[in-house]
Amino acid sequence: MREIILKQAEIAELFADILARGGTFSFRAHGSSMSPFIRNGDILFIEPVEAAALKVGDVALFQSIGDRLIAHRVVSKNIKRNRVVLTMRGDAVSAFCELATPDQVLGRIAVVRRGSKIIRPDRGIPGLAARLWMRLSPAGPLLIQLIRFGKRGGGCVLRRLQSLKSYRIFIRKMVGKKVRYRIATTEDSILLEKIYGHTISSNPGNLVEKHACGTENKKVQSFTLIATVGQKFAGATFLMQFPENQGHFPGLWFFGMRVLTLYRGIGIGEGLVRMGLKTASENSAAKVNLLIFEHNKPGVNLYRKMGFQSDSIHGLDDLLDKEVRQGERRRIIMSKHLLIKA
Hints:
Layout: H1 8-20, E1 25-28, E2 43-47, E3 59-63, E4 69-80, E5 83-89, E6 98-100, E7 105-114, E8 117-119, H2 124-136, H3 139-162, H4 165-175, E9 179-183, H5 189-196, E10 223-229, E11 232-241, E12 252-259, H6 268-282, E13 287-293, H7 297-305, E14 309-311, H8 316-325, E15 331-337
Parallel strand pairs: 12-13
Antiparallel strand pairs: 1-2, 2-7, 3-4, 3-7, 4-5, 5-6, 7-8, 9-10, 10-11, 11-12, 13-15, 14-15
């Protein structure tokens, strides 16, 4: 299937045409400006509406200056020069507002889907809570800022603890046996998008799609590996096979290692790498590579302990040198040769 990439203005034009014909569409929310009522990763269903029919408290999708598509709440509605002018603001924003005219409004958010939960933002308890939230403004957004500040402060204390060897020994004894590692499935795609902050794949099924590489008779697969503690997500990494036209990255590569702050110091990163090496070996890979910042001595030492060695790849070395000349930190290539299992 041919992939088509559209600019924001073209997407807005497409959406406007769909709504003008009486249709509806949906898209995934990105960002936190509408927290707590609309969260990053929620699916928003848009219905057609005239700007004059919007009420204070409705959440509308509009095209802002710069062609950005924004879903914010209507906080006031005025008539200026016989024209409706809407004041729009995100629920997590204390002061900044934008004005939207009828030609900027694309539609109204009719339904919010969060996992298996369906929410009508203008009805029932969600609608009542939103109206109360507006009356509390700016207290509500300020409360969110205080909570975020508290989380950052708590995160600093936690990171200091995790740097202590005694803490790591203790937490591994307490939690280490509860960690489980597995290959991600399509059901994990929404969670992974939230963790990484962007869409992992245009087709969630690609998370576990098999890709051919290696010898003629044997194939290596690309995988998304995740770690859980009990029922909670703790970390993930990608074991990736790049297309042949990306010759700077031959073979299999570890990319995107992510361990949530709460679960660092347990050995989850090491566990994900060991699972990846085992999976790669079982699927006929002869070698696995990764990139790491040279100054990350603990990480470099850990990978050396696991059998990785510094490596050189023609073409990629030049790209890494170019990064340094542009003022970026030095990254190095590390590789590990594997025993292929029959």
